[in-house]
Amino acid sequence: MSDRDKIAPSVDDLMPRLKAEVVAEKAGSTVEYVVMGQSGFLGGAVVQAMKEQKRSFACIPSGVRLDDRKTIAEFLDRWKPKYFICAAGTAGRPNIGWCESNKGETIDINVTGQLNVAELCRQRNVHCTLFGTGCLYYYDKDHPKGSGKAYTEEDAPNFTGNFYGRMRIALENLVRQYDNVLSLRIAFPVDSQGHPRSLQSKLCKYPKITSTLTSYTIIDSLFPLIPEMAKKNLTGVYNFTNPGVTTNKFILSMYKKYVNPEHSWVDAEEQVTSVPRAFSELDMTKLLKDFPDIPHVEKAVEASMKKLGEIVKKKKEEAA
Predict the structure, then answer these.
(1) Regions in the chain scoring below 50 on pLDDT
(2) Distance (Å, rounded) from C-alpha 30 to C-alpha 28?
(3) How far apart are alpha carbons 131 and 90 in whole angstroms?
(4) SS (HEC) of the chain
(5) Distance between CA 36 and CA 46 in Å, rounded?
(6) Residue-wise pLDDT tens digits, 109-135
(7) In this structure, are residues 118 and 175 in contact, taking their beta carbons and an 8 Å threshold?
(8) What pLDDT, in 10s, does the model give residues 237-277?
(9) Strand order in the sheet with 236-239
(10) Residues in a beta bridge with 186
(11) Which is it for strands 266-267 and 236-239: parallel, antiparallel or unpaired?
């Protein structure tokens, strides 16, 4: 085993206690929260927040699909939750390009499946949280890059450059009709656990990166808010990123400072094309009304990379 493998986070480190016992833990008893999609990147972060906050919750088994309304309904009727958090979905493998050639399956998971959950919850008067995307806009003449003029939840999306995004827009328009649904717009998620699906883990694989000011979701500072957002009965669409904007270069600079001083990359010039890319600043006024202490994105990035560095250092010491 290489030194790199020795210090790499294990499955258990990345998704603590996300095995069958999480489901069995509350079997046969009522709970406040039910989580679906707990074995994925974002679902694992939700479960971690639940554990740290000592919330009463249970998880739908990983083998249950979003189109299995009968089984999901059985769990809802058994556990009688007040709140349902659905982190199940697909962003494609290895990336959203997969959705272009698998349109039927993308619709089934990211549109029809999400509506299944929303409707099952509506029928039982259960608050339902769904995860969407914040990559719905690009800078334009009314929202120039670096101007501080950010997109609100009520601005019509102007980025339709990929099938994944178009289906997220379609879902968002539909769930706005549900009075029990909270839809969170997540963009370029960064974590402190080194999950392979986190943005910084992806960036580290590339010898060259481009950097454009944009909004980011820093999981450590935002995901702990999700249980309380449900409890406050917040509904509708929310931009779910940290205040302010930063760049991929800043994120890697913090990674280099706290995690791996030997990491290097080349800053590539951003290519000017006629096709816009989904970089923008999202307005955080709505979320900050209920949670005014959310840190600026760069402060949150630095805190996450510092924590990741501590985890990596501890693993190196244990492996020595």
Answers:
(1) 1-6, 8, 11-12, 14-25
(2) 7
(3) 11
(4) CCHHHHHCCCHHHHCCCCCHHHHHCCCCCCCCEEEECCCCHHHHHHHHHHHHCCCCEEECCCCCCCCCHHHHHHHHHHHCCCEEEECCCCCCCCCCHHHHHCHHHHHHHHHHHHHHHHHHHHHCCCEEEEEEECCCCCCECCECCCCCCCECCCCCCCCCCCHHHHHHHHHHHHHCCCCCEEEEEECCCECCCCCCCCHHHHHCCCCEECCCCECCCEHHHHHHHHHHHHHCCCCEEEECCCCCCECHHHHHHHHHHHCCCCCCCEECCCCCCCCCCCCCCECCHHHHHHCCCCCCHHHHHHHHHHHHHHHHHHHHHHHC
(5) 10
(6) 788 889 999 999 999 999 999 999 999
(7) yes
(8) 999 999 999 999 999 999 999 999 999 999 987 765 555 78
(9) 57-59, 33-36, 83-86, 127-133, 181-186, 236-239
(10) 133
(11) unpaired
Q: Per the structure block, which two tokens stand in for 48? A: 């971690």
Instruction: Extract the tokens encoding 93.
Output: 């493998």
Q: Measuring CA to CA, which residue among 245, 249, 247 is closest to residue 208?
A: 249
Other C-beta atoms closer than 10 Å to the C-beta of 56 total 14
Give the distance from CA 15 to its chain's centroid: 15
Strand 33-36 and strand 266-267: the pairing is unpaired
**Rounded distance between C-alpha atoms, residue 139 and residue 146, angstroms:** 9
Cα dihedral sign for 179, 185, 189, 191? negative
